[in-house]
Task: inverse folding
């Protein structure tokens, strides 16, 4: 992208943008929809708009998505106590 | 800001039915002392693994390495565990328990990296390095005659149209390159408030540049 495109992108604001607070409040739900290819952007257009514009929140989104997509994620194994021991 | 931050249009049900794994986590974390302790240890191990992966993922962009990076991961996991156990009643089953829990540790890593920035920032908050802006935006120096007026107009708009707070935030984030989370700490604010202020500044700058014929509503006027 050249300078004009980059400046244009930076100055573009999306009125659907929900901001950091709301995006982070629902991030765990959003990333699961993304991981399941279940229409996250369609269900939460305001969060999608925010993640396109906010570097720090986008970074957190990438990190959480990587965490739940990690093949060594032990989450499915549960706490390994009680009935799951 | 003039409220672009409206609510998400598809809020989930208040309390979804729990999957078996999440239910087991909740049962264990609310169980007997021994059960709870075992669950906490297991959860901490998971959080530490996620924190380590996350600091390594971001590591290339940080000035932190080796034991310091691992220490940061430990701190993030410890603090995330405290937050999770304190807020466990807030978990509404909208996602797997582990996804909800991992969010805490990812956000802790972010926050700690933001704080770490000021240990060796390498920049002055007030520095206004307009000379670096063309390069940061990707303008071709050989074509300066094509973008010089645009950036001069942008600078004028920043200096004349933005509020003092908007200008300070624009300068720190865009010209000086201070990370947003680090700026939030320095200004004793938070990510959301800083983002909203920059959002309003971006919209105001675009309106000014559009009114003066440098941009239009669809796409920038390119030479």
Result:
């Amino acid at each position: 992208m050249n300078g004009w495109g980059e400046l244009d992108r930076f100055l573009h604001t999306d009125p659907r943008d929900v901001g950091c607070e709301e995006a982070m409040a629902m991030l765990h739900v959003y990333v699961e929809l993304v991981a399941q290819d279940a229409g996250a952007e369609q269900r939460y257009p305001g969060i999608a708009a925010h993640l396109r514009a906010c570097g720090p929140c986008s970074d957190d989104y990438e990190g959480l998505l990587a965490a739940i997509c990690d093949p060594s994620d032990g989450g499915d194994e549960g706490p390994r106590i009680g009935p799951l021991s | 800001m003039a409220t672009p931050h409206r609510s998400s249009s598809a809020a989930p049900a208040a309390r979804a039915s729990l999957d078996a794994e999440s239910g087991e986590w909740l049962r264990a974390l609310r169980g007997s002392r021994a059960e709870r302790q075992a669950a906490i240890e297991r959860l901490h191990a998971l959080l530490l693994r996620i924190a380590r992966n996350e600091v390594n993922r971001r590591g290339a962009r940080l000035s932190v390495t080796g034991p310091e990076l691992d220490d940061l991961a430990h701190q993030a996991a410890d603090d995330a565990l405290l937050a999770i156990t304190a807020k466990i009643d807030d978990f509404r089953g909208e996602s797997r328990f582990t996804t909800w829990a991992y969010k805490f540790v990812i956000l802790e890593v972010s926050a700690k990296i933001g704080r770490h920035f000021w240990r060796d920032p390498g920049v002055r908050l007030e520095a206004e390095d307009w000379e670096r802006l063309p390069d940061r935006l990707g303008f071709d120096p050989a074509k300066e005659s094509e973008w010089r007026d645009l950036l001069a107009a942008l600078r004028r708009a920043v200096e004349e149209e933005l509020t003092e707070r908007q200008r300070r935030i624009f300068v720190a984030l865009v010209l000086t390159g201070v990370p947003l989370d680090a700026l939030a700490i320095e200004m004793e604010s938070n990510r959301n408030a800083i983002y909203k202020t920059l959002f309003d500044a971006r919209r105001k700058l675009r309106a000014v540049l559009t009114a003066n014929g440098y941009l239009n509503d669809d796409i920038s006027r390119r030479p």
Summary: The two ends of chain B are 32 Å apart (CA to CA). Chain B touches chain A through 70 residues (CB under 8 Å). Residues 51 and 106 of chain B are 7 Å apart (CA to CA). Chain B has two domains: 20-117, 130-211.
